[in-house]
Amino acid sequence: MQQSVEFRGRSREALGNEQIRSNFRQAMDGLMSKRKASFPDQDELRRLRLRAAEIRANALLKLPELLERLEQRCHENGIQVHWAESTAEANAIVLGIMQRHDARLLIKGKSMVSEEMELNHYLEAHGIECLESDLGEYILQLAGEPPSHIVAPAIHKSRQQIAQLFRQKFPDIPYSEDVDTLTRSARTILRRKFNQAPVGLSGVNFAVAETGTICLVENEGNGRMCTTVPPVHIAVTGIEKVVEHLADIPPLLSLLPRSATGQHITTYFNMISSPRKPGERDGPQEVHLVLLDNGRSRIYQDQELIQTLRCIRCGACMNHCPVYARIGGHAYGTTIPGPIGSILEPQKAGLDRLGDLPTASTLCGACAEVCPVKIPIPDLLNRLRFERVRSDGDNLTPGQGSQRHGWEPTVWRAWSWLHAHPLVYRLGTRIASRLRWLQPRRLGNWSRVRSTPRVASRTLHELAAKNGFNDE
């Protein structure tokens, strides 16, 4: 239960930090208004969401077949495919590629799967430098912090905090709080590394089984540099990111940036189908695709929870979540925070470790309303709450039943028996009303945020009799 205690502590700390709350409130308000403005035609939005949900559901329905087809097409195109059941295997695969090329520097584009793998720490322990090239990720690397949002990793920081960080890390650079100046400073530092790095790493937004194409969405150009300049490119992704046809990409691409940042299209959309071919002037000489499971195939086996895997990582559910907007991403203590993280991460790590996350929700339904692929997140949150206390599960969800206490079946059997015997029930309620002064004033976590219900001084039957109503 240590993770649960830590989550509550981090949440209280975040709620008491006015700077964090202010930063997130301002950022979330901006992202929500931009998303709303980018979908002026609600009929178009409904059609796009329905189509996107169908595309993702179809891909998951055929997932084993599509993964095999993706591997075949990639091999035909010259892309080397690696399978990893766990993050440890995925890390070992990346390390092996680095060692074969005697590489001591890895330059990275933004990748939540690499965060899931904790790849930076793993490679650094083996003497390999990892440099984040996404501006937000680079800022957090300097600060020694994990991302707090899957689209805008440093969204919890103000420009003043970033300026102070740059002054601390780069005292020779003139101090400035101007965003453009800070960006230019980071670009100057990072540009030198692109030419020096023998290996670049990226994430994957979509992998097309039909053509063996890796699709990458970005705004800064650093992703294209990571996949083009170094001689070796490694792409890491979860197995759920595959889609069947190249024609499936436009509807998803139309929804992803608008849902994430309110942009109609991202600055760059990269489609990588092979290493550099003879006669081409740029591109890597090797391309590797690492397909990570890490619990996804277990989620795939549940007919309801499989919907979790539809996610296209837009972050819209976070932007509209009243809980996330107040406590931020770090409070969750997971790679992916917010509503989608509250259903995905406990299924991977176990409800015994992260069982509090599904309860970190008001169940207002805002996340489901804005999800571009129509994931019913509130339904899945409730399902995981049930999984945490059930006693007859199929054990597909790790930590199933971890919150169920041994005395609960006895209590419920007694409750059932009491309500099945009217005379005993009347006697019991009469005694409870007379001894109401013995009732504790607090009922555990229930009364931490609610008023404790009190037993009435007279039973309903007594009140009815007093007012002239008999038992008939």
Spell out the blueprint of helices and strands.
Blueprint: H1 2-15, H2 18-38, H3 42-61, H4 63-77, E1 80-84, H5 87-100, E2 105-108, H6 112-117, H7 119-125, E3 129-132, H8 135-143, H9 159-169, H10 179-196, E4 199-202, E5 206-208, E6 213-218, H11 222-228, E7 232-238, E8 242-243, H12 249-260, E9 268-272, E10 286-292, H13 296-300, H14 316-319, H15 324-327, H16 338-349, H17 351-354, H18 366-370, H19 377-389, H20 408-419, H21 422-434, H22 460-466
Parallel strand pairs: 1-10, 2-3, 2-4, 4-7, 5-8, 7-10
Antiparallel strand pairs: 5-6, 6-9
Describe this structure as you would to a colleague.
The protein has 22 helices and ten strands. By secondary structure, it is α/β, with parallel strands linked by helices. The protein has three domains: 1-38 and 326-404, no CATH class; 39-294, Rossmann fold; 411-466, no CATH class. The strands form two sheets. The chain has a six-stranded parallel sheet, with helices on both faces. A four-stranded mixed sheet has the order 8-5-6-9. Strand 5 (206-208) and strand 6 (213-218) form a beta hairpin. Helix 3 (42-61) packs across helix 12 (249-260). The two termini are 52 Å apart. The model has no long low-confidence stretch (mean pLDDT 92).
